[in-house]
Amino acid sequence: MRIDIITVLPQLLESPFQHSILKRAIDKGIAQVNLINLRDYSTHNQKSVDDYAFGGGAGMVMSIEPIANCINALKAERMYDEVIYTSPDGETLNQKMANQLSTYNNIIILCGHYKGVDQRVRDHFITKEISIGDYVLSGGELAAAVICDSIIRIIPGAISDETSALTDSFQDNLLAPPVYTRPAEYNGWKVPDILLSGHTKNIDNWRDEQSLDRTQKRRPDLLK
Ligand code: ADE
Q1: Is it true that the peptide bond before 183 is cis, omega within 30 degrees of 0?
Q2: Residues 58, 86: one domain?
Q3: How far is the CA of 73 from the centre of ligand 1 (A)?
Q4: What CATH number does the domain containing 175 carry?
């Protein structure tokens, strides 16, 4: 899978892809992430990519020209399954959406900034708008990193023990059960006996019960 991220702050997005599962997936060639500096597509002398809002008001708006130049240049090279815009007024990211996105070959993510982008970009270039939650970030870069992480980690081969991605919280609309490791007792606090019993079937049943119980208590909305 290839992800092209269009941003005014490419440096901000370097670190998330240089560690752990994402780095390994990229090293293995399972995912390719390209950071594209939007300023490279500006035709202004100062490389500006924004301008004052028509009608007045505080805050700058990202201009259509550099974004159109950039997206058209990318589209001339290959077909894209989705051109995503990160914005607090987009559809909220969830596991189902991440699963769907992880099946695609090529996607573009445009990181929003300032007061957002000229509406004509959204009307004519963007095919999907994603929010990572009901709060406002300084820019779309961290949202793009979250979206990429949620997608790349579930591409087959990214996680060595593939079943582990399947038992994550939210796969099956259930939260994950509690987990424990050694020591079996610390400070008088004991690991549940069942986990030490060696009875795989009983342990699986216990985990299913714990998942359901946790979901009922913490996120009953997921069970509806
Ligand atoms: N840009 C600013 N806030 C955001 C959010 N919550 N989700 C996605 N992009 C954003």
Answers
A1: yes
A2: yes
A3: 25
A4: 1.10.1270.20
Atom of ligand 1 nearest to the CA of 130: 8
CB 2 within 8 A of CB 105: yes
- Say how many Å lie between the CA of residue 171 and the centre of ligand 1: 23
pLDDT tens, position by position, 68-89: 999 999 999 999 999 999 999 9
Look up the domain containing 175 and give its range. 169-223
Does the pLDDT value for residue 167 go beyond 80? no
User: Which residue is associated with the tokens 């606090």?
Assistant: 189
pLDDT at 102: 97
**Residue nearest atom 10 in ligand 1 by C-alpha distance:** 87
Same domain, 87 and 178: no
Q: Are residues 121 and 216 in the same domain?
A: no
- CA distance linking residue 4 with residue 40, whole number of Å: 14
Query: Among 87, 117, 134, 138, which is best to mutate for testing ligand 1, by the most ligand atoms less than 8 A from CB?
Result: 87
Alpha-carbon distance of 191 to 26, in angstroms, equals: 37
pLDDT at 162: 63
| Residues 139, 61 share a domain | yes
Q: Whose CA is nearest to atom 4 of ligand 1?
A: 88
Question: Is residue 27 domain-shared with residue 131, that is, in the same domain?
Answer: yes
Is residue 169 within 8 A of residue 210, CB to CB? The reply is no
Cα distances from 73 to residues 3, 45, 155, in angstroms, run 15, 20, 27
The residues pairing with 2 across neighbouring beta strands, listed in sequence order, are 32, 106
